[in-house]
Automatic annotation (TrEMBL):
This is Purine-cytosine permease. The chain crosses the membrane at residues 62-83, 117-140, 152-171, 183-203, 228-247, 268-288, 311-332, 353-373, 379-400, 421-437, 443-462. Keywords: Membrane, Transmembrane, Transmembrane helix. It comes from Kriegella aquimaris. GO terms for molecular function: cytosine transmembrane transporter activity. One of its GO terms (cellular component) is plasma membrane. InterPro entries: CodB.
Length: 470
C-alpha cells in the first residue's frame, strides 16, 4: 500500500468517512452519475407535490408558468455549474469549513446553527408530505393550507415513524444518501409522468390548446395566497434553491465531484423535478379543484387543501401513495445530511452519525407542524434570502480577492474568531433589503439577488479597509 493511500485512510478515519475538515482525497471522488441520481431524486421529490399546486393557488397564467419555469430553472443550473461546482472542485471543502476559514469560528457557529435549523425545517416539510400518503389507509384527516398544529394522534405517530426512518438513512453518510436517491428517483419520476398523463385524461385534454387553457390567462389568487406574475415565477424558481447554489451549501456535495462539469447534472433536478414534476402536480390539483369537495371550500371562501397523498392516490392509486412516501424521503435525506454537517461544524467532536440523528430529530419535530409544508413558497423564499448572502462571501473572495488586494481565508491566516467584515456585510445587506421587502411589500425573492451582490461587494470593501498585514 502506498504512502498516499495510507494517509488517505488515516484522514478518512479522523473525519468519520465524510472529510468534514479536510479536502476530499482523489480516491473518494465520484463521477457525474452519482450526482445525476441524487439531484433527480432530490428535486423530483416531496416539495414538488406541494409547490405545483401552490402555483395554481397563486393564480398563474399558462405563459407565466411554462415559460417562467423554463427560464428560472436554467438560471439556477448555470449558478450551480459556474459558481458552486467550480469552487467546490477547487478547494474540496464543506461550506461550513470553508466559511470558518474566512469568517472565524465564533461567527460561523451562528451561521451553522441557523443553516442547520432552516434545513431541518425544510426536511420537516418533506416528512409532512410523506405523512399525507402514509395516512391514507388509516383514514387520517389531511392538513389544510391554513393548518399550523398537528391535527390528531394518528398524524403524530405517522410523522414520528417516518422521521425516524429517514434520519437513520441520512445518518449513514453521503454514499448511502446517494444510493438511496439512485434507487428511488426512477420510481418517483415515473410516478410524476403517470400522474401527469392520468390528470390530462381526467381534465379531457386532447390538444396543446386544451393544455394551455388549464391555466389560461391566469386568475385571482385563492384566499390568503399571493398573486404570482411571470417575474414571480422566474425569480422564485431561480432562487428556490438559492441557499444551495449562490448560497454555496452544495459545496458540501460537489466537493466529491471529479470535475466541475458535474454541476450540469443539476439540470436533471430542475427540468425533471422543478419543471415536469411541478406541472404534473399542478395538473393533479386542477383535477381536484373540479371536485364537489374543492368547490365547497371555494364557496366558503377557503383555499382547498393541498395534500400530496390524496392527490396522487386519486390519479394512480397505491403507486401514487408509494411515490409520495419515497418523494418525501429523497428530499429529506440529503437535507438532513446537510443539516448534520452544519451541526458538526459547531460540535466537531460528535460523530457524523449522532449530529445527523440530532438534525433528523429536529426535522421530525418540525414535520409535526403542517405550516412548514403548507406555506412552502414563502418559507423557501425566506430561507434562501437569509442564507444566500453568505455564499457571496465565498464567491467574491474566490473570484475577486486578488484584484481587490485582500487576504484569502483571513480568519485562519490572522488567527481570529470573528471577521467583522463578513458580519457587517451580511447584516447591512440583510437588514436593508428585508426592510425594503416589509416596508414596500416587495416579494422577498425579488431582493435576494440584490442582497447577495451587496453582501459580496461590502465584504470586499470592508476587508480592504479592516484587514491588517499578516
Amino acid at each position: 500500500m502506498s504512502q498516499y493511500n495510507i494517509e488517505e485512510e488515516i484522514i478518512e478515519d479522523i473525519a468519520g468517512g465524510e472529510f468534514e475538515r479536510t479536502p476530499v482525497p482523489k480516491s473518494n471522488l465520484k463521477g457525474w452519475k452519482s450526482f445525476l441520481g441524487m439531484y433527480a431524486g432530490e428535486h423530483a421529490a416531496g416539495t414538488e407535490f406541494i409547490i405545483g399546486p401552490l402555483f395554481l393557488t397563486a393564480g398563474v397564467s399558462a405563459f407565466d408558468l411554462i415559460i417562467g419555469l423554463l427560464i428560472g430553472n436554467l438560471l439556477a443550473v448555470l449558478c450551480w455549474r459556474f459558481l458552486t461546482a467550480e469552487i467546490a472542485v477547487k478547494y474540496r471543502l464543506t461550506l461550513y469549513y470553508q466559511l470558518e476559514k474566512i469568517c472565524g469560528k465564533t461567527l460561523v457557529t451562528g451561521y451553522n446553527l441557523a443553516n442547520g435549523i432552516l434545513f431541518c425545517f425544510l426536511a420537516g416539510a418533506m416528512i409532512t408530505v410523506s405523512a399525507t400518503a402514509v395516512g391514507i389507509p388509516f383514514g387520517m384527516e389531511m392538513p389544510k393550507l391554513t393548518d399550523t398544529m398537528p391535527n390528531g394522534p394518528t398524524w403524530v405517530i405517522i410523522v414520528l415513524i417516518i422521521g425516524a426512518v429517514i434520519s437513520l438513512i441520512a445518518s449513514k453518510g453521503y454514499d448511502t444518501v446517494s444510493k438511496a436517491a439512485n434507487w428511488m428517483s426512477p420510481i418517483i419520476v415515473l410516478a410524476f409522468i403517470a400522474c401527469g398523463v392520468v390528470a390530462l385524461g381526467q381534465l379531457e385534454v386532447h390538444s396543446f390548446s386544451d393544455f394551455w387553457n388549464i391555466w389560461g390567462e391566469g386568475s385571482d389568487p385563492f384566499p390568503g395566497q399571493l398573486k404570482y406574475t411571470f417575474w414571480h415565477v422566474v425569480i422564485w424558481s431561480w432562487f428556490a434553491n438559492a441557499a444551495m447554489h449562490i448560497g454555496m451549501s452544495d459545496l458540501s456535495v460537489f466537493r466529491f465531484a471529479k470535475k466541475a462539469s458535474s454541476g450540469w447534472t443539476t439540470a436533471a433536478g430542475m427540468y425533471v423535478g422543478h419543471y415536469m414534476a411541478w406541472i404534473a402536480a399542478a395538473l393533479l390539483y386542477a383535477v381536484y379543484l373540479k371536485s364537489p369537495e374543492a368547490q365547497a371550500f371555494l364557496t366558503n371562501g377557503e383555499a382547498p387543501p393541498v395534500a400530496p397523498g390524496p392527490l396522487a392516490n386519486n390519479a394512480i392509486g397505491i403507486f401514487g401513495i408509494i411515490a409520495v412516501v419515497l418523494a418525501g424521503w429523497t428530499t429529506a435525506n440529503p437535507t438532513i445530511y446537510r443539516a448534520g454537517l452544519a451541526f458538526q461544524a459547531i460540535v466537531p467532536k460528535l460523530s457524523t452519525f449522532w449530529v445527523t440523528i440530532i438534525a433528523g430529530t429536529v426535522a421530525t419535530i418540525a414535520g409535526l407542524f403542517p405550516a412548514f409544508a403548507m406555506k412552502l413558497l414563502g418559507f423557501v423564499a425566506l430561507y434562501g434570502f437569509i442564507l444566500a448572502p453568505f455564499g457571496a462571501i465565498i464567491v467574491f473572495e474566490h473570484f475577486f480577492s486578488k484584484n481587490a488586494g485582500i487576504v484569502k481565508n483571513y480568519a485562519e491566516t490572522a488567527n481570529i474568531k470573528f471577521n467583522k467584515s463578513v458580519f457587517w456585510a451580511w447584516a447591512i445587506s440583510f437588514g436593508l433589503f428585508y426592510f425594503i421587502s416589509l416596508q414596500f411589500d416587495v416579494f422577498l425573492s425579488f431582493v435576494t439577488l440584490p442582497a447577495w451582490l451587496l453582501c459580496g461587494g461590502l465584504f470586499l470593501l470592508f476587508s480592504k479597509m479592516w484587514q491588517k498585514n499578516v
